[in-house]
Amino acid sequence: MEEELKKVRPEVRIRAFRAIDEPETCELFIQGHTQVLTSIGVTKVTSSKNGWAKNPDAFVIIVESLNGKEVFGGARVHVAGGTEPLPIEQATGALDSSIHDLVWKYAQYGTGEICGLWNSQDLAGYGIGTPLLIRTLIAISSQLGIQSLFALCAPYTVKPVVNCGMVLIESIGNRGTFYYPKLDLIATAMILNEVATLGKALGEDKTSIFQMRESPNNLRINELKNREITIDFELQIPNLDKWDLSQAIESAFKTYQLKNKIDEKEPTFF
After folding, report:
1. Is the pLDDT of residue 229 over 90?
2. What is the mean pLDDT of residues 175-187?
3. Nearest Cα to Cα of residue 192 among 88, 84, 63, 83
4. N or C: less crowded end of the chain, CB within 10 Å?
5. Residue 268 pLDDT > 60, yes or no?
6. pLDDT at 225
7. CB-based contacts of 57: which residues, under 8 Å, 6+ apart?
């Protein structure tokens, strides 16, 4: 554990970046995520596969030490149209092929997926968990210009995404649910239809997301869940001038045309 987490008031940073811009940081993310999944007996999860690190349409948030040498948690936003289908397509396509039509319906206007969320045990009890990371993912998504966001949720992430304005996708699977990544686990398909306005988000979550958007690099939290901790936010994604949503949409259309060639062997889990 880094010295920052041993202090009376631990200090960490939550930072956003484009995956292909920081391969070394992505490797730290991959190592940490793999350890967490392995510890709970999950080994075949599409969102934990490593192709995203070279996907030009994948964006990452990490919880890291101030010196940037250790990553304690993170999550990702994948924009439809990257070098691989959205994780939810890879996860559910073999069970219900209509997911491809649904993704394209939204991809025409810019869509994405939040996925790959994890936290190390080092952060346990400090409040830097699922709700905060989900809010952060939705906050940075507005920078990308996308209008909607998918999520394939483990049971413990359903309530936090609902609080942020997501709704159940009843048209796929068993009224929006799937048995995976194992038969004794249930995943739920959700979507946020209003990334910009967050029309269905609840008060505290909505306020927090807009605060992150208004001050992406000038926000600091000094307490969470009655625990002292300093969290600095650097959420303005660098090098966005080198990325173009219209190109992602064009690529998404090509992917949609080739949907029957999509690899549907392994699931994702958020």
Report:
1. no
2. 81
3. 88
4. N
5. no
6. 72
7. 78, 79, 80, 81, 82, 83, 243, 248, 251
The CATH number of the domain holding residue 63 is 3.40.630.30
Cα–chain center distance at 107 = 17
* Segments forming the whole domain that contains residue 230: 3-261
The chain-wide mean pLDDT, for the chain, equals: 88
Element of type H or E holding 160: helix 155-163
pLDDT at 43: 63
Q: Model pTM greater than 0.70?
A: yes
Place of tokens 């269905």: 200
Rounded Cα–Cα distance for residues 206 and 74 (Å): 20
Q: At 64, phi and psi to the nearest 5?
A: -130, 165
Residues paired with 219 in a beta bridge: 233
Residue 12 near residue 4, CB atoms below 8 Å: yes
In the predicted model, what is the mean pLDDT of residues 156-181?
93
Count the domains in the chain.
1
> Tokens 């993310």 sit at which residue?
29
Segment 115-133 mean pLDDT:
85
| Dist CA 114 CA 142 (whole Å) | 13
Q: What stretches of the chain adopt beta strand conformation (E)?
A: 11-18, 58-64, 71-79, 111-119, 148-153, 167-168, 177-179, 186-192, 219-224, 227-234
Residue in the structure block whose two tokens are 């960490």: 12
Pairing state between β 71-79 and 111-119: antiparallel
pLDDT bin (cut points 50, 70, 90) of residue 3 is: low
C-alpha closest to that of 140 among 25, 240, 249, 65: 240
Residue 187 pairs in a beta bridge with: 178
Q: Is residue 184 part of a domain?
A: yes
Does 177 fall in a domain?
Answer: yes
Asked whether residue 70 is assigned to any structural domain, the reply reads: yes
Q: Does residue 268 sit within a domain?
A: no
